[in-house]
Design goal:
Blueprint lengths: L3 E6 L5 H12 L2 E3 L9 H6 L1 H24 L5 E3 L5 H12 L5 H14 L8 E6 L2 H11 L9 H17 L4 E6 L9 H20 L2
Parallel strand pairs: 1-3, 1-4, 2-3, 4-5
Length: 209
Amino acid sequence: MAILISTAGNIGAGKTTLAKWLGNNFNLELNTEVVNDNRYLSDYYSDFNSYAFRLAIHFLSLRASQLLKASASLNGSVIDRSIYEDPEIFVRKFNDEKIIEKRDYDTYFDLWNLIHPHLPKLDILIYLYCPVDVLLKRIKKRGRSYEQSISVDFLNTLQNYYNEWINKFNLCKIIKVDSANLSYTGGEEIEKLKTEITEYIRKYKSDHQ
């Protein structure tokens, strides 16, 4: 059994960057979300109502497969977005804003409740939080065409869901990181994170010998 870590956070919070850093520094297999090959994502951003449910189902399948693959790694793995964010953040938002029908919402959670109890459990969830104005600047800077319509209101709404979710999440160890001030070349925030993960991995290996 090897350690399984996931990053989590709003769009533009720096999940993939941190996941790559974790992979390099702790010799973990990296499992990232391949956004350019997503068959629904660009359509979703241009037409929420038509593609939200299809996107949610696609992500459920993709993230379940990713989690199973990651859990099979002998050295341990890091994933750049947790499977829990879709039902707790995005699908809830779709339902609350009537972007999807109630029957679609119920169907999604029928599948979720069937699948997730049988999936491997995370050992650590690293939650990245960041002011919305910084998120928006990062989104504009990375230049994905389908993300350029994302607004401050959209990010603020997501952030409210994230705040509610992370405050009640209790399925594994949580490490919270201020990604607005995170420097990978050094500094208090990254050194604190490195120390905490190093200690957790040391204990994990000792407990699973």
